[in-house]
Amino acid sequence: MKLYTRTGDQGKTSLVGGRVDKDHLRVEAYGTIDEANSFIGWALALLAGDERFRDLCAELQKIQHELFDCGGDLAIVNGKLPYKVTEAMVTFLEERIDAHVQEAPPLQKFILPGGSKAAAALHMARTVARRAERCIVSLQKAEPINDVVLKYMNRLSDYLFAAARVVNARLGVKDIEYERSAIVFRDKEEKQ
After folding, report:
1. Does residue 1 lie in a domain region?
2. For the packed helices 54-74 and 147-171, what is the interaxial angle rounded to 10 degrees?
3. What region holds the Cobalamin adenosyltransferase-like domain (predicted)?
């Protein structure tokens, strides 16, 4: 099998249901998802083999597969094929976010991205996931999409934030609070 096809040499690419320019909103959206997936792969490479992160590595690998599903759903132009991204995938992320928030130290202020190398990679993935989300919002304004992909990417960035904090906590690396941050995160009881 050859990796190159030469079919994109004129700036076009194939989607499910037609060909578009390589800078089309759909291509930008799923390409940005691919970038986020690559940073998750980097984090996985940094965490691999450390028994403290076996559960997190399994979650991240599951998410990598789901990100391919997100990209595939966004590559469907005519909306006639069944979508792969479901509400159950969003619910899984929510459940894992809640568990990771409970494990990490309490958070009141904004933190700087970083800490350990793996946490920094997860923060990179988080920021790219946010950019992908912005691309999907632009695409959604122009063309029909699987709306669950937008929900998934929104939750994913929260998941990656929580996962980065868990990585630092398990490694004994303290998150660095943004020094001019007000207290922005409060328990529900404190807000009332």
Report:
1. no
2. 160
3. 3-167
Rounded to an integer, what distance in angstroms lies between the CA atom of residue 77 and that of residue 26? 9
The two structure tokens encoding residue 116 = 């350990």
Task: With H, G, I as helix, E, B as strand and everything else as coil, classify residue 1.
Answer: coil
Q: Say what the pTM is.
A: 0.91
Cα 111 to chain centroid, rounded? 19
Give me the domain span that covers residue 113. Answer: 12-191
Q: Is residue 140 part of a domain?
A: yes
Distance of CA 71 to the CA centre of its chain: 12
Q: Which residues contact 181 (CB under 8 A, 6 or more apart)?
A: 109, 110
Q: Is 3 a member of any domain?
A: no
Within-domain flag for 163? yes
Please, where are the H alpha helices in 48-174?
A: 54-74, 87-103, 117-142, 147-171
Burial of 13 from C-beta contacts in 10 A (0-12 / 13-18 / 19+): middle
pLDDT tens for each residue of 35-62: 999 999 999 999 999 999 999 999 999 9
